[in-house]
Design brief:
The structure holds two protein chains of two kinds.
Chain A: H1 12-17, H2 21-24, H3 28-55, H4 62-67, H5 76-83, H6 85-119, H7 123-134, H8 141-151, H9 158-165, H10 183-195, H11 197-208, H12 212-220, H13 225-254, H14 257-263, H15 274-284, H16 288-322
Chain B: H1 3-35, H2 39-42, H3 57-64, H4 66-99, H5 104-118, H6 122-133, H7 142-148, H8 150-167, H9 170-178, H10 183-212, H11 215-220, H12 228-231, E1 236-237, E2 240-241, H13 243-263, H14 265-272
Antiparallel strand pairs in B: 1-2
The chains are: A mainly alpha, B mainly alpha.
Chain lengths: ~325, ~280
C-alpha cells in the first residue's frame, strides 16, 4: 500500500490556490488555543507538585503551615518514610494488589472478550452480553466498595450464604472476608469485579476491528482455531492488550476509593496502600512534610512508568497512521 | 484436534463465560432485591435470596429525603459545569494541536497534556486542599470540585478531541478557504459537525468520570456540597446502615452512565483506549 504513488486527492489548480496554513490564521492563534489548557494544568497540577516537592524537605505540619514557621530538614522526611515499617507493608500490599488486580483483570478480560467474539454465534446476543459484563464499570468505584462490603459481611453477608447454599461451605462456617487475613484479597475481588470490564471492552472492540479477510484466508488454508489464535489474533491484538494493561495498572496504582470505603486500610493496616497513607498523613494527620515525601516517592515511580508508556503509545499511534 | 475434544473445549470456555456472567450479575441482583426489602428482612441472620416482601417505597423514600435530592443536584452541577469547561477548552486545544501544531513541539505538548491525567492525584490534592482553604469560598464549594476535576478531564478531552480532529478530512476545510470562508466559519460550520459524535462521546466520558468521582469530593467537600458518592454511605440510622436506601440510590445514580454507554458504545471505547482502538 504505497499511498505516495497514487494521484493526489486534490486537483492541481486547487493545489495552486491553496493558502499556506500559517497565513490562514495569525501565528499566535493556535498557541493561545493550546495555551489556556496548558496554563490551567500548570496551575492545578504542576504548581501543587512543586509545592509538595518544597515541603518534602521541610518539617511542615498544620500549625507550621498557617504561621509560616517550618524548618529545612533535608532528606529527613524521605528517610522517615523509607524506614517506616508501615510504608514497607503498604508497598508489599501494593505489589499484591497490582499483580493480582491489574494482571488478572487483563488476562480475564482478554480471555472473555475472545470467547465472546469467537464462540457466541449471534451478534445481537454478543452485544447484550457485552453490555451486561460492562455494567460494573458504570458504578462509582466507591459505591462498588460499599456494595462489596455489604456482600462480604461475615455473618449475614450474601457471599458466605451463597457459598453455603451452593454446598461449597459448611452451614456453620463463616469466612471473615474483611478480617486481617483476607481484607486485601477482598479489595482485589471487588476491583477485579469492577475493572475486568475495561480490558474486556477494549480487546473486544479491537478484535471486531481486525480485518476479516486475514482470518478468512487462514480458514481457507485449513489452519486450526488454536493456530489462528496463537499466530494471528493475539499478535495482531498485542498493542491493544498492552495499552489496556497499562491503563488499568496506572489507575489501580493511583486510586484508593475502595480502600477508603471498604476497609479504611484496616484492620491492623492489612490493606493499606502507599497512596492511602499519603492522604491520611496529609489531610487527616496534617503531617504535611512526611505526606509530601510519600507523594513524591509515588510520583517518581509514576513518572518513570508514564514516560515509558507514552513512548510506547507514540510508537503504536505512528504505526497505525502508516498502516 | 479431534472433533469431540474441540467440542469439549468449546463447552468449557462457554461455561467459563457463564460463570463470569453469574459473578458479574449476582451483585447487581442482590443490590436490586436489597433495594426492595424492608430493613427487618435485610438484618436477618440468614439473608433471603428471594425477597419475601417487596417494598418499592424505598425508591420513593430516597426522593422524599431532601439530602438525596441535594446530593443529586450537587453531582449534576459539578459534573455538568466541569464537562462543559473541559469540552470547551479541550476542543479549542485539540483543534489547534491537530491542525496547526503538527511539529515536534506540538507533539510533545500533546503528550505532556495527556501525562497530566495519568499522574497520581495525591501530589495535587493535598496542596490544593490548603490552597482552597485560604480562598474566601473555602474547600467545601462547587468551585473547588469543578476546578479540580479538570485535573483528569481536561487532559482527556484535549487528547481525544485532537484524535477526532485528526480523523476529520482537512480537504473540506481547505475547499472552504478557497471559497473565501473565514477560519472560524470553516471550523464551526464544517469540521465541528464532522467531529460532533466524537465530541458528544468525550462529553459523556467526562461527565461519567466527574459524576462517579469520590476521592476528591470525600476529602475536600462534605457539608455545603455533597455529591452522591459521598452522600450514599451516610444513609444510617444510629450505628445501623440503611442498606435498602443505599442500594436503591446507587441503582438510580447508575442510570445516566449506563444509558450513555448503551447509546454511544463505539465512541466510548475509542475514548477509553485513548484513541488507539477504532471501535
Amino acid at each position: 500500500m504505497k499511498q505516495e504513488t497514487t494521484t493526489p486527492a486534490v486537483p492541481e489548480w486547487f493545489e495552486a490556490r491553496r493558502k499556506p496554513r500559517a497565513r490562514i490564521v495569525a501565528r499566535w492563534v493556535p498557541w493561545v488555543m493550546v495555551g489556556i489548557p496548558v496554563l490551567v494544568l500548570l496551575a492545578i497540577v504542576v504548581y501543587p507538585t512543586v509545592w509538595m516537592a518544597y515541603h518534602a524537605f521541610h518539617d511542615t505540619n498544620m500549625m507550621g503551615l498557617f504561621t509560616g514557621r517550618y524548618a529545612y530538614v533535608g532528606w529527613q522526611n524521605f528517610a522517615n518514610v523509607l524506614s517506616d515499617p508501615r510504608f514497607h507493608n503498604s508497598v508489599v500490599n501494593l505489589v499484591w494488589y497490582l499483580t493480582f488486580g491489574a494482571t488478572l483483570e487483563v488476562l480475564l478480560g482478554t480471555a472473555l472478550a475472545l470467547i465472546l467474539y469467537e464462540l457466541v454465534p449471534r451478534p445481537g446476543l454478543r452485544v447484550v452480553l457485552l453490555v451486561a459484563m460492562v455494567l460494573p464499570m458504570m458504578l462509582p468505584p466507591s459505591i462498588v466498595g460499599v456494595l462489596w462490603k455489604f456482600l462480604l459481611q461475615a455473618n449475614n453477608g450474601a457471599v458466605n450464604h451463597l457459598l453455603i447454599n451452593l454446598g461449597l461451605m459448611a452451614p456453620t462456617e463463616r469466612i471473615d472476608w474483611l478480617g486481617v487475613d483476607l481484607s486485601l484479597t477482598s479489595l482485589i475481588i471487588a476491583d477485579v469485579w469492577q475493572w475486568t470490564a475495561l480490558p474486556l471492552l477494549i480487546v473486544y472492540s479491537g478484535r471486531v476491528s481486525l480485518p476479516p479477510a486475514v482470518f478468512e484466508a487462514a480458514r481457507v488454508d485449513g489452519a486450526s482455531r488454536f493456530t489462528v489464535l496463537r499466530r494471528l489474533t493475539l499478535p495482531m491484538l498485542k498493542e491493544i492488550i498492552a495499552i489496556a494493561f497499562i491503563l488499568r495498572f496506572m489507575d489501580a496504582y493511583k486510586f484508593v476509593d475502595k480502600v477508603y470505603v471498604m476497609t479504611s486500610g484496616g484492620p491492623a493496616q492489612s490493606s493499606e496502600l502507599p497512596v492511602f497513607i499519603a492522604f491520611q498523613k496529609g489531610i487527616r494527620e496534617f503531617q504535611i512534610g512526611e505526606a509530601a515525601a510519600y507523594a513524591w516517592l509515588i510520583f517518581v515511580v509514576a513518572a518513570v512508568i508514564i514516560t515509558l508508556f507514552l513512548q510506547y503509545l507514540k510508537r503504536v499511534l505512528k504505526a497505525q497512521a502508516f498502516a | 484436534m479431534s472433533e469431540t475434544s474441540a467440542r469439549l473445549i468449546r463447552i468449557l470456555l462457554l461455561a467459563f463465560l457463564g460463570v463470569w456472567l453469574f459473578f458479574t450479575l449476582f451483585p447487581f441482583y442482590f443490590q436490586l432485591i436489597t433495594s426492595l426489602k424492608p430493613v427487618a428482612e435485610i438484618n436477618r441472620m440468614v439473608p433471603t435470596f428471594w425477597p419475601e416482601v417487596l417494598v418499592p417505597g424505598n425508591y420513593a423514600g430516597i426522593f422524599a429525603d431532601p439530602g438525596s435530592l441535594k446530593a443529586l443536584q450537587d453531582s449534576l452541577v459539578v459534573a455538568l459545569a466541569n464537562t462543559a469547561l473541559s469540552l470547551f477548552l479541550g476542543t479549542l486545544a485539540g483543534y489547534a494541536l491537530a491542525r496547526y501544531l503538527k511539529g515536534p513541539v506540538g507533539e510533545n505538548l500533546s503528550f505532556w497534556i495527556l501525562s497530566n491525567r495519568m499522574f497520581p492525584p495525591v501530589a495535587v490534592l493535598i496542596p490544593m486542599f490548603f490552597l482552597f482553604d485560604n480562598t474566601p469560598w473555602g474547600t467545601d464549594s462547587y468551585f473547588s470540585l469543578i476546578v479540580l476535576y479538570l485535573v483528569f478531564n481536561l487532559p482527556l478531552a484535549t487528547w481525544l478531541m485532537m484524535v477526532f480532529f485528526r480523523d476529520a478530512p482537512v480537504e473540506l476545510e481547505e475547499a472552504a478557504y478557497v471559497d473565501g470562508w473565514k477560519p472560524f466559519q470553516a471550523f464551526s460550520r464544517i469540521t465541528l459537525p464532522l467531529v460532533l459524535p466524537g465530541m458528544i462521546s468525550v462529553a459523556m466520558l467526562c461527565f461519567i468520570f466527574a459524576w462517579n468521582e469520590y476521592l476528591f469530593a470525600n476529602l475536600l467537600t462534605g457539608t455545603n456540597v455533597k455529591t452522591f458518592p459521598v452522600h450514599i454511605p451516610t444513609f444510617t440510622q444510629g450505628s445501623q446502615t440503611l442498606w435498602n436506601l443505599v442500594m436503591a440510590f446507587s441503582l438510580v445514580a447508575m442510570l445516566p452512565p449506563v444509558v450513555m454507554f448503551i447509546l454511544l458504545r463505539r465512541y466510548m471505547v475509542r475514548g477509553l483506549s485513548l484513541g488507539v482502538v477504532k471501535g
